[in-house]
Amino acid sequence: MKIGITMPQGCDREFLGMDAPAAWGRTIEVAQQAERLGFESLWVYDHFQVDPPPEEAIVFEPVVELGALATATERARLGHLVLAAAYRNAALTAKAISTIDVISGGRVELGIGAGWKEDEWRAYGYGFPDAAERLAILSDHLEIITRMLAPGRATWNGSHAHVIDAIHEPKGLQQPRIPIVVGGNGPKVTWRLAARFADELNLDALMPEQVEAALPVVRSRCEEIGRDPASLRVSVHVWGRPGVPPGSPLRARLREYEALGLSRTILQGFGAVSDPTLLERLAEHCDAVGMLERGAPTSAGTLS
Fold it and tell me: Band of the pLDDT at 295, cuts 50, 70, 90?
């Protein structure tokens, strides 16, 4: 099992007391430290303002941030955890992520979900559709993104998004395409969308026993459409910073996730902005169970 880590973006108030240049400089330092320590992947949230209650604080735009991290790192894979589909035009999302894949030398994964953070939806003028509509938007976006990443031109006429004979080059470096990660815990819709479109399903904040209960349902969503369940990787995003203090359960928890067959666990690294030792302490636990990577860049075409 591989270990990823979330990068500072600002939505957890990690930049309070900093000006924008200092905040960005610290973000680069954290990313490069994480890569040196052997974390397999670096992930950026898709938020525009801090968690409620909203306040004036630095929050970087995540697509631009990921592109910049691509130039500041060499080995780690890069992705969003996860883009809210409705925030951007679907074809433009595919174009942006494909460009970052080229910039990074083929290290990007396209993470996408339905979105949930009502305060910023409304603040930025998107309204706040109900869950069914947000999931319908996600479905249309996945239809378009998969067509944009495939050979040839893309056409799709959906209820919430469409493209007409769209030309998309470059399509990225990875073959057969940039991996798609669908994020969310909804067994009825989200997991079916993951089975149809994704290379990986990312479960959000589920404990090992919850993951164990979810996996048979995920497998059934693949089997419903004749997909081999083994072809859909499953990962988990762990909120908080479990296991940083001495004697913590992080090592045992990571072993539990690995025993369940998860491909990746993503830990939170926001606190590294103010605590330069946080990543080192997390890395010590991960290294003790053999889950860190060091060495050559993870280049295009190496992800099975």
Answer: low
DSSP 2-47: EEEEEPP-STTSTTTT--HHHHHHHHHHHHHHHHHHT-SEEEE---
Q: Which two tokens stand for residue 164?
A: 């007409």
Residue 303 has pLDDT above 70, yes or no: no
Measuring CA to CA, which residue among 153, 157, 155, 189 is closest to residue 169? 153
Considering the domain boundaries, does residue 304 fall inside one?
no
Can you list the alpha helix ranges (DSSP code H) found in 105-249?
118-123, 131-149, 190-197, 208-224
- Which among 66, 77, 19 is positioned nearest to 264, based on CA atoms? 77
pLDDT: which is higher, 135 or 285: 135
106 is in which domain, residue-wise?
2-288
- CATH of residue 141: 3.20.20.30
Q: Where are the beta strands (DSSP E) in 175-291?
A: 180-183, 200-204, 233-237, 264-267
Distance from the first to the final alpha carbon of the chain: 14
Cβ distance 196 to 187 under 8 Å? no
Q: What is the pTM of this model?
A: 0.94
